[in-house]
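Exam revision sheet. Question 4 asks you to relate a sequence to its structure. Input first:
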Amino acid sequence: MDLIRIFFDANRNIQIVVNKWLILAILFLLFLWLLYLKYLGRIIGKTFQIDEAQIGIGHQKIKIKPNYEDMQIAYKFWVELSTRKIGLPIDFENDVVVEIYDSWYEFFKLTRKLIKDIPIAKIRKNESTRKLVNIAIDVLNEGLRPHLTLWQARFRKWYQIESEKDENKNITPQDLQRRFPSYGQLIGHMKEVNQKLMNYRESLKKIAMEN
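Answer key, structure tokens:
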């Protein structure tokens, strides 16, 4: 069964015959494309709000009207937060603080890389892109860095020394970390940072995927 037939008729005129199933397939694909454009237009036309206080980087409520490229950027940040301990609730009964810090450090590095990979022309041209980038930088410098500066080195040094002692060889990492002299303050501050990062993750999810 030919999809398209091109031939000369008895009067030497070119005739083109298109199979009806091909026409239906083209119309169906066109319908799907129009649906996609309508869906995309609904998302791009929306204005999203990020409350700086909720993510610990200030006291303003920033409005972002993303374009498609901004949605892609938000999605990449969201994926990094959603697939690491940094953007998930911390279970202090079972999670190991050192492993959480490892995850936070990796997120720090990957976020910087994602920011550097965004072409400067997009950042200079689009206000919404600048806002997304500035928020990401502030999350690192104001939301995450203060905790790491205050606690990470102190805890890692203490934990390494204690874990190498013979009397602690049979103690689980979870039980050992509870012996840290300032453990209550440490996990209290860590919970605050964790909650702010989860709020940030939800804001990115709305920008990237909410319809």
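Marking note for examiners. Residues 1-44 form one domain.
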